[in-house]
Amino acid sequence: MLAGVSGTWAPAGVGVLKLPSGRLVRGRGLRHPLPDGPRPAFAVYLLGKEPPAVPWEARWLRWPDFWLPSDRSAAREVLREAWERAESERVEIACGGGRGRTGTALACLAVLDGVPNSQAVDYVRANYSKHAVETPWQRRFVARFPN
């Protein structure tokens, strides 16, 4: 963890999703400026190519726009790590636009947090972005995500 980077997000922060357990995770689009305020302690970047380096700990999942992660086993591991770390750290999940891939990953975190798979997409759309999870295969990925 970076010096001075501890705690979680403010519940009303830009892009912050509050999971039923109280864990807070920030979703965002990397094509938009970094929001003002504290930096993440840990981030998961969902992109088709490796992202530029950032001054906080980050994981990259190869995940082409509008599709699914290239390695689903790695996706499960990294998303579980993000969910676990969100209990006490500022965790960020981000893709290019902050909707499809980010929404899908946030819905998977909701499943890990106890939201039934069949309700996770609706939960994220109601509490993060109504545009989250853009494709039928992304919805199916959430529906089959192990908890």
From TrEMBL:
InterPro entries referenced in this protein's UniProt entry, alphabetically: Prot-tyrosine_phosphatase-like, PTP-SAK
Name of one Pfam family that matches: PTP-SAK
GO molecular function: phosphatase activity
Signal peptide limits: none
Record's keyword terms, sorted: Hydrolase
Domain Swiss Army Knife protein DSP-PTPase phosphatase: 78-122
Name of the protein in question: Protein-tyrosine phosphatase family protein
Organism annotation: Saccharopolyspora thermophila
